[in-house]
Amino acid sequence: MNKSLQPDLLALVRDPIDHLTLIDHVRAAEDGAIVTFDGCVRNHSHGRRTLYLDYEAYESMALLKMREIAGQIHEQFPIHLVAIAHRLGRLEIGETSVFIAVSSAHRPAAFEACRFAIDTLKRTVPIWKKEYFEDGAVWADGEMPPAPLETRAAKPAS
Amino acid sequence: MARRTCAGYNSLVSLSSQTARVKVLFFGRLKEIVGHAEDSVELPDGAPIEALFSHYGVNHPELARFRASLVASRNQEFAAWSTPLHSGDEVAFLPPVSGG
Questions:
Q1: d(CA B20, CA B12)
Q2: Is A146 in Cβ contact with B80 (below 8 Å)?
Q3: Which homologous superfamily is A7-135 in?
Q4: Residue A90: which pLDDT band, with cuts at 50, 70 and 90?
Q5: Minimal Cα distance from B72: which residue of A?
Q6: Domain spans of chain A, in order of start
Q7: If contacts are CB pairs under 8 Å, which of residues 19-78 in chain A contact chain B?
Q8: What Rg value do the Cα atoms of chain B yield, rounded?
Q9: B80 touching A (Cβ < 8 Å)
Q10: What is the number of alpha carbons within 13 Å of residue B36 lying toward its C-beta?
């Protein structure tokens, strides 16, 4: 069988994420494991009750960065396929915001690759969420992506 | 080169120098501060991303407060603030990311 025939699945979606479609996408006869990560909307944040979230993305760059993550986990772990979908727009409590499925012949690679994928996504993919509370809304505290080193003469605006 | 801008005020250059037109994107709270998601700006060819950001600081001084927590991108790749810009480039100013 030729593993390269079926590509990884990387998607930004506005409708509810269909977990089974992603799981089935990575499932193959040569795999003994599929590990999934289901990131869902929590009903509280920093001690406040969350009503809902609103996600936005720099879509073209986000897809490029998601593809980079797929490439990285193929390089670093002996996995078969990965599927990553992130949802945008308004999400209600309990809904899935991001779903990752990774398949591999043996389970350690799929576990490690799945963990690496979500950790890297949260640090490098240009997606932002706004949290809506009963008394207002804030952009969630995020992580700064690793910026390229400045060459000479770069100076912050004062 | 013809001097055409989207919003009228958003030109960094005099008429005589060689210029570049770049697309600028804002996200998250930056979009709320600037008031729009997308802009088109003419600037001296080779000007750094930093100069483009400073340009918006003139009309939106509160942007400076966020400078230290921003990462810039050029053509969908994270880029140093010193990166020179050329015609057709797409620049974005990215607040800390919070996907997942």
A1: 10
A2: no
A3: Molybdopterin biosynthesis MoaE subunit (3.90.1170.40)
A4: very high
A5: A147
A6: 7-135
A7: 39, 55-58, 60-62, 64
A8: 13
A9: yes
A10: 8
pTM recorded for the entire structure: 0.89
The first and second tokens of residue A49, run together, are 């009750």
User: Of the candidates B25, B50, B78, which has its C-beta nearest A155's C-beta?
Assistant: B50
Those of residues 35-54 in B touching chain A at CB distance below 8 A are 48, 50, 53-54
pLDDT in tens, A62-84: 999 999 999 999 999 999 999 99
Q: Which residues pair with A130 in a beta bridge?
A: A54, A139
Token pair for A126: 């240009």
Q: Is residue B27 within 8 Å of B58, Cβ to Cβ?
A: no
pLDDT in tens, A4-36: 557 999 999 999 999 999 999 999 999 999 999
Question: What are A33's two structure tokens?
Answer: 């494991």
Write out the CATH class of domain B19-94.
alpha beta
